[in-house]
Design goal:
Layout (H helix, E strand, L loop, with lengths): L1 H7 L11 E7 L8 E7 L7 E11 L1 H7 L16 E9 L11 E5 L8 E5 L3 E3 L6 H6 L1 H13 L8 E4 L5 H13 L2 E6 L4 H7 L3 E4 L5 H8 L5 E6 L4 H8 L1 E9 L13 H10 L5 H7 L2 E4 L9 H16 L7 E6 L3 H9 L6 E5 L1
Parallel strand pairs: 8-9, 8-11, 9-10, 11-12, 12-13, 14-15
Antiparallel strand pairs: 1-2, 3-4, 3-6, 3-15, 4-5, 5-7
Helix pairs in contact: 4-5, 4-11
């Protein structure tokens, strides 16, 4: 792989790369060990972009799927993953109206976030509040924007709604928990038993041990057989069918993720086959008869809708300003230890967000 990097970034004889930055590359599809730290030339912002000195980068499950070759939206390898960062503006391209050098920011990055310097379109960059830490800034974009889109924008969340959140101890799960608390919903969440005490302290009303109990039966027992108004499903596959059954009339199933596509660290065609064959099919007449909705959500396909995302970001940052929530950062890893961060996330050890620090 080293030869490929030298072709991409030729070294200056005897000096190496001048003004280099550190980046983590997915060198080929595979386990976490395919992540490699490399030097690259320092980028220059194009028109409409700003350059950020990265203070923290978020790690999310979409990065894991991309590393395994299972993300259809990812570039061909080799590439630099990463969808979110917090950093300081140190160079501004032409045509940027609202940012200046020295501004402390958080940002959505269309890949390239696993880096200590990155150029980002200014519409994907948001000023941090003075009292917002870099770690909190990097923990917000993917988790809180995705949860807000799923629950409020498309899920029509209302006070008093019963909401089932899968993988509630993950980054998006805790963000959804925070938003449900703000709105005033009743929350059910699946998580490993060792995480229940933390989740109860965080505000979860009904923790469900999915490892030792059938969560479908547990939810129906807890709701007196009625089910819930809203399910936030980050699992996919066979779970879509189960979660659809858990919806009461007027219920909404939000399909947010496909974690069941990658139950192991390596890509498996058998796992893919099982996933594809487990996907249910519902016709419009069936949905009309049941008075239920199935909603697809993918923040990573909204790059051309920056103005929409900015409106959600304003609300989330306002809630942070009002001290209505604080992201929970579970653990940080140095950029050079990105493989360990992926192991930690994929083994479901985290409670909250995992970050990389340059």
């Amino acid at each position: 792989m080293a030869g490929n990097f030298k072709e991409l970034y030729p070294l200056c004889p005897g000096k190496g790369i001048l003004h280099s930055v550190k980046q983590v590359w997915i060198t080929r599809p595979g386990p976490p060990e395919v992540l490699q730290l490399e030097d690259a030339p320092e980028p220059t912002p194009r028109t409409g972009e700003v350059r950020l000195r990265v203070e923290a980068s978020g790690v999310c499950f979409a990065d894991v799927l991309g590393r395994m070759g299972l993300d259809p939206y990812a570039p061909k390898t080799p590439y630099v993953p990463g969808y979110e960062v917090a950093g300081v503006v140190d160079m501004v391209g032409q045509g940027v109206p609202d940012l200046k050098e020295g501004d402390r920011t958080l940002a959505l990055t269309q890949f390239r976030g696993y880096s200590d310097v990155v150029c980002v379109p200014h519409k994907q960059v948001f000023k941090r509040l003075e009292w917002m830490t870099a770690e909190h800034g990097a923990a917000i974009p993917i988790s809180y924007f995705s949860a807000y889109l799923s629950l409020v924008v498309m899920g029509s969340l209302r006070k008093g709604d019963k909401v089932l959140i899968h993988n509630v101890a993950g980054g998006v799960g805790l963000a959804a928990l925070d938003i449900c608390k703000i709105v005033g919903a009743e929350m059910y969440g699946t998580a490993s038993p060792n995480k229940h005490d933390f989740l109860l302290e965080r505000g979860l009303h009904h923790p469900i041990d999915y490892r030792n109990h059938d969560y479908e039966r547990a939810v129906m027992d807890l709701t007196g057989g009625r089910g819930v108004q809203l399910v936030l499903d980050s699992l996919g596959g066979v779970h879509w069918r189960k979660n659809y059954r858990l919806l009461m009339p007027t219920g909404r199933l939000v399909c947010l993720g496909i974690k069941s596509l990658a139950p192991n660290r390596r890509r498996s065609f058998l796992d893919q086959f099982r996933f594809v064959t487990s996907v249910p099919s519902y016709t419009p007449p069936q949905l009309r008869r049941a008075n239920k909705a199935i909603i697809g959500v993918n923040l990573a396909t909204l790059w051309e809708e920056a103005d929409l995302v900015r409106s959600w970001a304003r609300q989330i940052i306002t809630w942070y300003d009002e001290a209505l929530f604080r992201p929970h950062v579970d653990r940080t890893f140095k950029l050079a230890r990105a493989a360990e961060a992926h192991h930690y996330l994929q083994d479901h050890q985290n409670v909250g967000k995992v970050l990389l620090i340059p």
